Each structure stands twice: as structure tokens, then as C-alpha cells.
């Protein structure tokens, strides 16, 4: 936390004891170890123990981690930098039950927490774990693809958070706060080289005051990875190594003309480029151990798979598009003229304007305006295999199932909050939220691959169809919360949020291959007209907190959550869409809203002069109509549904110890999770039947998970310091899909991150050697059937984590 931000935190409306804690925390310059209330900055090593606190905004106001009655894991910017954490997926080793998948042509990613998440297939789904960036809830997971940098703090809030964060927070919130301007001019630079993936990263910032009232911070980062993916031998692809590049640039202006008014503006541009959307997707050959063929046109075209069955060697088989399919692409499309070679490009503009105005000594007004503009396109064959035998045993590209999805997002949000800071026992917060969002999903697809028989004789196009889903969303919500001090030790808080959300989708199919025009397919020129969805909801919550002592807080909460339903934008013209078009009834494309209800009991405590922290939470929540989407590999159709009921219950424990050994700190997390479908949940099975998953564990829900982190700062002289740290994370395994009782199960695993650095105690310079996933453990995040399976085929697509990364880094600050 910068001194400027610290000064502002002290001026924020908070009274008495709370204000003293916040000001002491802010001026101590904190960067938190995961989940413990200890400062990591060495410059605060001699400060009083009571100043070692972390400020979070779990209830839209500054509160210390130990006093807020919410289960929060906070990770400070210094910890993120020490371990080279610049991807959201890397946070999982510090937050048990958090699961992150980055990649895919739909939403572009998936977040799940305590076994609850949303599909990465469809951009129509809001995330069950809200992704909040500098106070703005962002509706696209593509924002996380390029990672993050220059971050002040990451907070992970577990459990429903609809009262203060609104939509898309039924399972929790992942919140990132970027760094703000410093009170004095400061320049920082960082450069690293990664040996395993052959990548380099350079970043820097300049920060300081333009005047007594206006501060500026300009920061940028560029990351270039040459060997993000390595192909298997004999893979028929132009790119035998798949790479990626990221650029992020950010401008922050902070204006505080008086003690009663502050305005903060952030503008960020993100550019992400890669060699295809599949990411680390590997093929598992299933129980039969055979690489199943690519089965097309009822067997008229049956291509050899081409890939080996070693699913964990980090060698991928991602072939270019087959020649007969790669030629003509309906225009306009960036895929045209690329000869079937996969690629991906994403451009995102993010803007946020926040102001805080003290209307009086007891009332403050906060306004947060957010704007997100995204334009993303990629091209990829989704058969995950296939080749056409060439002369002399050569292989020609045989990728089928290509698509070139264009995803566009225009999102505007506005939130206004009025908060009180009375000296008495009663305080309140009132808020209003508005969102206007337009999602365009325009894609040409090869679901049938009819052009193996010949391109369209009328147009020359080799794609089966082109379709566009345009979804407009308008959401309005109001909320009110109160905090009542019943006694000096007992606090009652709670409130309710009312949400009204309307979505309207139109579907256009301007083109269908001539050979497919007929029964079972929509006709070219099809237009659905408006397909509406509307829902509203009241989400109440209440919390009782008892402060047993200055260092012990006990709380019990009742919480609810709401995530609006909508209209599926992944329906294909060959099945679900054609049936709806024929009947004129589009209700089959609508998925229902998701709701959560339950509660938790928590303890937050510190002992031994606050050198020991112990926090624990026990919870149980029921999720009704959990929004689920899967892919049927036999029918080549997306299956969108609502699970009847998922019940999650468990215990989260966080502990930390500032040991008697100078500079040595230990922190740990442990989570027990029991997540099961507790009502009927029918999923398509074999031979057209349905399988009821009632009683089965949820996906991405490990029963046991946790981590232990050790940091040791050793002074070598007045100008030299040695830092050593390690983080070991354990996960006892989980189911990776939601289709049957025999879905792929990831066995238990450990990961290890380490860091050794030497530098100046004040951070003027530092040399570091950092290793993430040191043991090179590869595990499965999600799984699904490989498209175009032959009868009896059982190959699966496994999305996996990245392997070992070893960084050599140098950084300067002056």
C-alpha cells in the first residue's frame, strides 16, 4: 500500500478504534502473506504488533481483515511479485478450493470456489465467482487471459456476496486492486527471463505528484513467451511451438483538492495474442487406451487421430485445419487468408472513475463508473487431432471442427453509495447499481464439416454456417445495509439487495452451406426476432458479530446469492436452434437464474502479542438451479441446463505465526469441502437416455486442500538482505466434469513454489531466482468428451495447468 493510499484510508469515514487501526495499518505499508494479518514489508519490522493489520473492502468500506465478519484471503502485492504471480491461475496455490481455467473460445475462462463455478464454454453465463477489478465487476473472463501486474492487493471472498457485490457473486468474489500514485516521485523496473517456456517479461512504472493535489502513476508490462506449448513429433502444423504475447498499459490519476473530496481515474489497455485458443488442452485416450479416429459425416470421412496417448508429457497435438476445410471463410473475418493456421487476438479497454465526497462529517457519497470494451477473435480446429495421410508417410493437416468466433463486449456500469459514520450505535449504507451490456458472438463453424465433400458451390465457403447472437442486458439494483452496535461487544449487521435484470437476444444465420440446406438445419437468412428473459430477486443477509476481546472476534452469518439466467448463445443451427426455429418456441434456449442460501460461523483471533493468527469458518450453502454447460461429443451439441440443487458444506482454516526468529514467518490454509448434488440433476447419457447425478460430488470440489508458506528475511548488512521463501500446496483430488458417474477424476497432488533473492532492504534493487510448480506437477482442471468421436470412442480433452517455470529476475526502484 502506498503512503498516498494510506493517507486516504485514514481520511475514510470510520470512527474511534476502527480509524486508529486503519491509520496504523495504512502507514505501516503492508503486503500480506496469504490469509494472515501480518505485514511483510521489512521496513515495518520494528513497528508495534497492533499495527500489523491488513485492510480489506469486503463490505465496501475499509475494515481490517481481523475485524470484518467475512471469510477473506488477502494476498499483498509484494507476495505476488516475489513469486512472480501475474496470472489469476497462479493464485490457486494460495487459496484452497479456488479453481481457475484460462482459455476457450466462449467466456475465455472459468473461476470456481468451494466447488461452485460457471462454464468457460458460453459467454452467455455470468461467472458465479465475481471478478472485480478496481471496484468494477467485469463480465468477461477474457480480462484475466493477459494476467495482471502492479497490483496492490488481491482479495478472495468466499461464499455468497450479493449484498455488496451484486450479480455474479453467488459463490464468492475475486477482487484485484491496482497500485495508486505515490506521494513522492518513484520509478520501478522489473525484468525476468523464464527458462522452461523461453519467455521474458519487462515491466515498469513511474509514480508521483504532479501537484499538491494531483498524483499520477503510469505503468506498463510486456510478456513474450516462445514455448507456451510444444507439439508432439509429426504434428502437421505450421507452428511447432505455440507462443503468446501480452501487453498491459495503465494510467492512474488521483486528485484530492480537499479533505472532503477525492477522485481516482484508471484507464487500462490490454492486448493478448496467441497461437490458438485451445491453451493447455491435452487428449486422454480413455479406458480403451486407443487414440480414437476423427469420425465425420457418418463415417464417410474417418481420419486417423494422429496423437499419442501420453496425456501428461506436455507435448500437444494441435493440428492446423484440414486443406478441404481451410479455404473459404465467410467475411469479414480475420481468419480469412490464414490458410487454416490457428491464432487468437484480444483487445480490451478498461476505464474506471471513482469519486468520494464527504457531504458532512457523518455522511459520505461514493460513485464508481466503469467501462469495458472488448474485441476478441480466434481461429482453431476443435477436433484436437486428425491428419490426412500424404505421400511417403507424410502427414497433412487434418484438423476439423474449426470456428472463428468473434466476441465483442461493450459494458457500462454505474454504482452510487451513501454511507454514514455516526458516533452512535447505528450506521447505514445505501446503494444503487446500473449496468448496460451488449455481447456480440459472431462465428462461422464447422459442426458437420460438409466441405470434405466440396466447398459451397454458390459462395466457395468451406464453413457449414455463420451465425450471430446479439445479447443486450440491462440490470438495475438497489441495496441497503445497516450496522447496529447492540453493545460494546455485540454487532448486528445486514441488509438486502433487490435486482431486476432484463436480457434480449437476437439470432441471425446469414449463411448455411448449400449441401446442408434442408430438414434439420435453419435456412440461410434466418432471424429469430427478440428472445426475452427477465427476472428479479431479493437477496437478504444478516450477520451477528461478537468481539470477545481486542483480538478475538466470533461471527455468524445468514447469506443469500443471485445470478440471473439468460439465453444460451452456443446453440447450433444443426440441432437445438433448428428445432426452436421450426416450432417458433425458443424456451429451450433459456436457462434459469441461480440462487444460493445458507450461512457460516467464523472465528478470527490473534494470540501471543498478535504473533499468532488463527481464523476458522464453518459453512453450508445450497445452490438451486446451478447453471451448467457441457459438450456432447457424440451429437456435437452444447448442453445447457440447471442442476436442481448443489449443497456445499465445509470448514476453512487460516493460521499464521510470526516466529521468535527474526524475519521468519509461517502461514497456512486448510479447507475441508463436501459438495454434492442433493436433488435431481439429469444429464444426457448414452443411447439418448438421461443420467441422474443426484448424490454425486460436484466438480472441482476437493475434499481436502491447503497450503503452507514460509518466508524468511535475513539481514546480511545495513545495505544487503537475503530473502528465502517457499509455498507448498496440497489438493486431494476432484471430479473434473459434470456428465456422469464415471467422469475423469484428478488424483491428489502437491505443488511447490520457491524464491531466493538478495537485495537492498529498502527494495532499491533485487536479484531473484523464482520457481513456480518446481516439481513440474501436471494436473487436470476440467475435462470433456473429444469432439467427433466414433461409436464406442471414449477419448477426453483434459485442460491442464502450466508446468514448471523458473525465473531469473532483476528489479530496481528509485
Which helices and strands, and how do they pair?
Layout: H1 3-11, H2 16-27, E1 55-56, E2 63-64, E3 72-76, H3 77-82, E4 98-102, E5 109-113, E6 116-117, E7 129-133, E8 136-138, E9 151-158, H4 162-165, E10 172-178, E11 186-194, E12 199-209, E13 214-231, E14 241-258, E15 261-274, E16 281-284, E17 294-296, E18 301-303, E19 315-316, H5 323-326, E20 343-358, E21 363-381, E22 387-389, E23 395-397, E24 402-403, E25 406-420, E26 426-445, E27 465-485, E28 490-512, E29 526-527, E30 531-549, E31 552-563, E32 566-567, H6 576-583, E33 590-591, E34 594-607, E35 612-632, E36 637-658, E37 664-677, E38 682-684, E39 690-692, E40 704-717, E41 720-731, E42 734-735, E43 745-746, E44 749-759, E45 765-772, E46 780-785, E47 796-800, E48 805-813
Parallel strand pairs: 7-10, 13-19
Antiparallel strand pairs: 1-2, 3-9, 4-5, 5-6, 7-8, 9-10, 11-12, 11-48, 12-13, 13-14, 14-15, 15-20, 16-47, 17-18, 20-21, 21-24, 21-25, 22-23, 25-26, 26-27, 27-28, 28-29, 28-30, 30-31, 31-34, 32-33, 34-35, 35-36, 36-37, 37-40, 38-39, 40-41, 41-44, 42-43, 44-45, 45-48, 46-47
Helix pairs in contact: 1-2
Amino acid at each position: 500500500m502506498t503512503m498516498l493510499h494510506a493517507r486516504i484510508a485514514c481520511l475514510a469515514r470510520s470512527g474511534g478504534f476502527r480509524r486508529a487501526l486503519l491509520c496504523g495499518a495504512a502507514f505501516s505499508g503492508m503486503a500480506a502473506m496469504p490469509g494472515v494479518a501480518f505485514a511483510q514489508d521489512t521496513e515495518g519490522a520494528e513497528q508495534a504488533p497492533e499495527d500489523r493489520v491488513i485492510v480489506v473492502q469486503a463490505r465496501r468500506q475499509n475494515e481490517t481483515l481481523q475485524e470484518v465478519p467475512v471469510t477473506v484471503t488477502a494476498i499483498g502485492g509484494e507476495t505476488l511479485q516475489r513469486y512472480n504471480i501475474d496470472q489469476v491461475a497462479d493464485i490457486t496455490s494460495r487459496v484452497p478450493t479456488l479453481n481457475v481455467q484460462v482459455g476457450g473460445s466462449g467466456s475465455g475462462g472459468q473461476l470456481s470456489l468451494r466447488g461452485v463455478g460457471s462454464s468457460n464454454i458460453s459467454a452467455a453465463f455470468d461467472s458465479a465467482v465475481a471478478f472485480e477489478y478496481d471496484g468494477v465487476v467485469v463480465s468477461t473472463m477474457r480480462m484475466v487471459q493477459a494476467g495482471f501486474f502492479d497490483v496492490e492487493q488481491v482479495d478472495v471472498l468466499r461464499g455468497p456476496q450479493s449484498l455488496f457485490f451484486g450479480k455474479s457473486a453467488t459463490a464468492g468474489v475475486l477482487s484485484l486492486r491496482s497500485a495508486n500514485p505515490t506521494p513522492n516521485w518513484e520509478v520501478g523496473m522489473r525484468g525476468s527471463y523464464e527458462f522452461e517456456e523461453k519467455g521474458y517479461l519487462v515491466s515498469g512504472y513511474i509514480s508521483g505528484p504532479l501537484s499538491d493535489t494531483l498524483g499520477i502513476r503510469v505503468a506498463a508490462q510486456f510478456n513474450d513467451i516462445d514455448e507456451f506449448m510444444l507439439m508432439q513429433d509429426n504434428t502437421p502444423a505450421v507452428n511447432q511451438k505455440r507462443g503468446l504475447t501480452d501487453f498491459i498499459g495503465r494510467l492512474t490519476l488521483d486528485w484530492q483538492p480537499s479533505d472532503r473530496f477525492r477522485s481516482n481515474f484508471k484507464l487500462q489497455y490490454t492486448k493478448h495474442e496467441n497461437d490458438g485458443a485451445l491453451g493447455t488442452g491435452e487428449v486422454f485416450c480413455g479406458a480403451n487406451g486407443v487414440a480414437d479416429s476423427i469420425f465425420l459425416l457418418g463415417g464417410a470421412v474417418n481420419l486417423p487421430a494422429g496423437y499419442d496417448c501420453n496425456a501428461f508429457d506436455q507435448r500437444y497435438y494441435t493440428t492446423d485445419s484440414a486443406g478441404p476445410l481451410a479455404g473459404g471463410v465467410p467475411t469479414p473475418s480475420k481468419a480469412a487468408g490464414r490458410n487454416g493456421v490457428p491464432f487468437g487476438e484480444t483487445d480490451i479497454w478498461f476505464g474506471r472513475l471513482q469519486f468520494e465526497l464527504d457531504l458532512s462529517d457523518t455522511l459520505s457519497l461514493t460513485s464508481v463508473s466503469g467501462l469495458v470494451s472488448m474485441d476478441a477473435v480466434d481461429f482453431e480446429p476443435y477436433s484436437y487431432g486428425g491428419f490426412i495421410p500424404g505421400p511417403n508417410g507424410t502427414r497433412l493437416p487434418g484438423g476439423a471442427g474449426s470456428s472463428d468466433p468473434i466476441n465483442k463486449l461493450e459494458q457500462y456500469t454505474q454504482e452510487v453509495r451513501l454511507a454514514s459514520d455516526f458516533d452512535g450505535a447505528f450506521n447505514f449504507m445505501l446503494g444503487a447499481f446500473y449496468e448496460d451490456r451488449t455481447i456480440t458472438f459472431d462465428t462461422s463453424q464447422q459442426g458437420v464439416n460438409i466441405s470434405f465433400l466440396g466447398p459451397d458451390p454458390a459462395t466457395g465457403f468451406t464453413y457449414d454456417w455463420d451465425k450471430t447472437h446479439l445479447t443486450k442486458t440491462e440490470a438495475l439494483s438497489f441495496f441497503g445495509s445497516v450496522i447496529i452496535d447492540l453493545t460494546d461487544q455485540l454487532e448486528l449487521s445486514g441488509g438486502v439487495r433487490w435486482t431486476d435484470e432484463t436480457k434480449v437476444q437476437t439470432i441471425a444465420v446469414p449463411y448455411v452451406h448449400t449441401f446442408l440446406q434442408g430438414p434439420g438445419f435453419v435456412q440461410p437468412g434466418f432471424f429469430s426476432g427478440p428472445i426475452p428473459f427477465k427476472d428479479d430477486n431479493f437477496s437478504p443477509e444478516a450477520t451477528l458479530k461478537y468481539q470477545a476481546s481486542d483480538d478475538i472476534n466470533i461471527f455468524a452469518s445468514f447469506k443469500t446469492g443471485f445470478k440471473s439466467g439468460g439465453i444460451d448463445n452456443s446453440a447450433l443451427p444443426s440441432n437445438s436452434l433448428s428445432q426452436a426455429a421450426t416450432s417458433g418456441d425458443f424456451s429451450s434456449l433459456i436457462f434459469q437464474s441461480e440462487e444460493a442460501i445458507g450461512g457460516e460461523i467464523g472465528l478470527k483471533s490473534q494470540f501471543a502479542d498478535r504473533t499468532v493468527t488463527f481464523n476458522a469458518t464453518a459453512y453450508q450453502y445450497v445452490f438451486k438451479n446451478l447453471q451448467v454447460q457441457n459438450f456432447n461429443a457424440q451429437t456435437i451439441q452444447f448442453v445447457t441446463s440447471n442442476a436442481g440443487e448443489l449443497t456445499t458444506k465445509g470448514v476453512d482454516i487460516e493460521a499464521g505465526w510470526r516466529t521468535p526468529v527474526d524475519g521468519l514467518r509461517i502461514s497456512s490454509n486448510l479447507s475441508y469441502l463436501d459438495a454434492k448434488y442433493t436433488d435431481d440433476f439429469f444429464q444426457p447419457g448414452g443411447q439418448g437416455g438421461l443420467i441422474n447425478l443426484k448424490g454425486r460430488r460436484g466438480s472441482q470440489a476437493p475434499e481436502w486442500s491447503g497450503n503452507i508458506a514460509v518466508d524468511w528475511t535475513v539481514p546480511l548488512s545495513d545495505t544487503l538482505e537475503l530473502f528465502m521463501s517457499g509455498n507448498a500446496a496440497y489438493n486431494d483430488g476432484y471430479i473434473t466434469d459434470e456428465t456422469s458417474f464415471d467422469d475423469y477424476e484428478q488424483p491428489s497432488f502437491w505443488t511447490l513454489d520457491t524464491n531466493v533473492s538478495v537485495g537492498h532492504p529498502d527494495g532499491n534493487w533485487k536479484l531473484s531466482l523464482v520457481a513456480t510448480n518446481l516439481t513440474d506437477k501436471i494436473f487436470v482442471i476440467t475435462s470433456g468428451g473429444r469432439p467427433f468421436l466414433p461409436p464406442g470412442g471414449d477419448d477426453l480433452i483434459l485442460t491442464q495447468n502450466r508446468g514448471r517455470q523458473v525465473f531469473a529476475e532483476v528489479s530496481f526502484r528509485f
